[in-house]
């Protein structure tokens, strides 16, 4: 029998929920609830009613979702704390529709890499309030393969912020996969078309590039604490 685990850095939470004793699982969920509450409170202290809305959404989740959501919020808090020259927790422009949607969607994300990207989006909204409400819905519709093709197209962009975003998201995806590759190259046409339907990329004479919407989305899911020097 493995040692009891109460931390939130978990792999294969579904299998873990089935494998460990009920008492250990309850302790894990209780830890997640406590962590979520302690983390979200200072972030929403200056936003009228937002903390209560988020807590209410969290309370309505099933236990496994709570563990994932707490993990995502803890990751977001770490990114906020690591972002230099930022007065965190004071941005009153944060949008409840963005945060609640992102937290709820991240609570059913089993891939650690994508959960890291959800944390990036949440951190960026807390820091600047500039995440468009459509972006959580776009992120929800991306598969790992979509993300890889999106990054491949983005690599052609010469803007410094886009270069930073590409490296940041690559690092995030590596958390869940360990290596980034697209083995079925013939499928990339489908992924490009899907990205085009999401208005993230466009094609001109067989050359694919980011749209303005795609550039802004890429920035929104970039780790705010990440630098090209890392």
Task: Record the SSE blueprint.
Elements: H1 13-19, H2 22-43, H3 50-59, H4 63-82, H5 96-106, H6 112-128, H7 135-140, H8 144-154, H9 160-177, H10 188-197, E1 201-204, E2 207-210, H11 212-220
Antiparallel strand pairs: 1-2
Helix pairs in contact: 2-4, 3-5, 4-6, 5-6, 6-9, 8-9, 8-10
What is the H/E string? HHHHHHHHHHEEH
Give the neighbour order of strands across the main sheet: 1-2
Mean pLDDT: 84
Strand content: under 5%
Profile the largest sheet: 2 strands, antiparallel
Number of strands: 2
What's the helix count? 11
Helix content: 55-70%
- The tally of structural domains comes to 2
Describe the structure.
- This protein is mainly alpha-helical and 230 residues long.
- It has two domains: 13-140, no CATH class; 144-220, no CATH class.
- It has helices spanning 13-19, 22-43, 50-59, 63-82, 96-106, 112-128, 135-140, 144-154, 160-177, 188-197, 212-220, and strands spanning 201-204, 207-210.
- Strands 1-2 form a two-stranded antiparallel sheet.
- The longest helix is centred in the first third of the chain and has 22 residues, at 22-43.
- The chain starts with 12 loop residues before the first helix and ends in a 10-residue tail after the last helix.
